[in-house]
Design brief:
Largest sheet: 8 strands, mixed
Radius of gyration: 20 Å
Helix content: 40-55%
Number of domains: 2
CATH superfamily of the largest domain: Ribonuclease H-like superfamily/Ribonuclease H
Number of strands: 8
Distance between the termini: 21 Å
Structural class: alpha/beta
């Protein structure tokens, strides 16, 4: 079982993952097996020690070795480099006529880095902020923050992280139309977008003053496109490892989300 074919793994993923400089070299076939096992973990949410490694390798291969490679690719930035490459070289498959901004909160049962207790939801959780295109393809993700903060916590910093992804992929932000819900209806968000010449279309927060509605235009027809990011979150929920966070390290959790973004985008790429 693999959520990506071996051909796509070989063409889109393997060339951009680091290879050890010491010891015996690993064959392409075994590296495909390692990637398939990691994708199986992402899709099913099983524990690392429950990986059915016999499905992916002809000879005996331990789950510790699979985790070792996942951890190394997290630490050396391979997943991030791969994501930037895909965005940069296959951006013709993106629809940037409008982009959608939203945050997501994930329960974290075992605690860990960037985990906090959210009193509103009565659970420990982690927050992430995402950008997607007009089709629902995720194009950028912020670093995880503890769930006791709302989406606007250090927003300027996190929005900059989103923009950096686009800059690295040579995607211009000038003139983009951004949809966001009422939770982002504030001067901090609007000024952050204005800094990068992004046109905001943010639903008005009823708790704000009427003056805010007089100063900013809101296009209800354009805003209807925001549904695509809700659909994308449903796509992400299909990866059971992302439904509940069990990774202690924030970096591992971050990279699992990037890997899910890679899988979703690769399905739109014709190769």
């Amino acid at each position: 079982m693999s959520i990506l074919s071996k051909d796509r793994i070989k063409k889109l993923i393997l060339p951009h993952l680091s290879v050890g400089k010491r010891g015996l070299s690993i064959s392409e076939k075994k590296r495909v097996g390692i990637l398939s096992a990691i994708l199986y973990r992402l899709k099913t949410g099983c524990q690392w020690r429950e990986l059915p490694t016999e499905r992916f390798f002809e000879e005996k291969y331990s789950y510790q070795s699979v985790f070792y490679h996942f951890k190394r690719w997290c630490e050396d930035g391979s997943w991030e480099r791969l994501w930037v490459y895909l965005l940069k070289h296959y951006k013709k498959y993106l629809d940037m006529s409008s982009i959608q901004l939203d945050g997501s909160k994930t329960r974290a049962n075992r605690g860990g880095q960037a985990v906090g207790f959210n009193h509103k939801h009565s659970k420990a959780s982690t927050n992430l902020v995402y950008l997607c295109d007009n089709q629902g393809i995720l194009i950028a993700i912020s670093e995880p923050v503890s769930g006791n903060h709302h989406d606007m916590f250090h927003f300027s910093q996190h929005f900059k992280q989103l923009i950096v992804w686009l800059e690295k992929a040579d995607i211009s932000t000038e003139g983009l139309f951004l949809n966001a819900d009422a939770g982002f209806d504030n001067d901090i968000c609007r000024k952050a977008c204005e800094k990068y010449q992004i046109e905001t279309n943010i639903d008005f927060n009823k708790r704000n003053t009427q003056n805010n509605q007089l100063c900013h235009h809101f296009d209800e027809v354009l805003y209807q496109r925001r549904f695509v990011i809700e659909r994308t979150f449903a796509w992400m929920d299909a990866f059971k490892a992302l439904l509940i966070r069990y990774e202690y390290l924030a970096k591992h959790w971050f990279c699992f989300n990037i890997l899910a973004m890679i899988v979703i985008f690769s399905r739109f790429i014709k190769c």
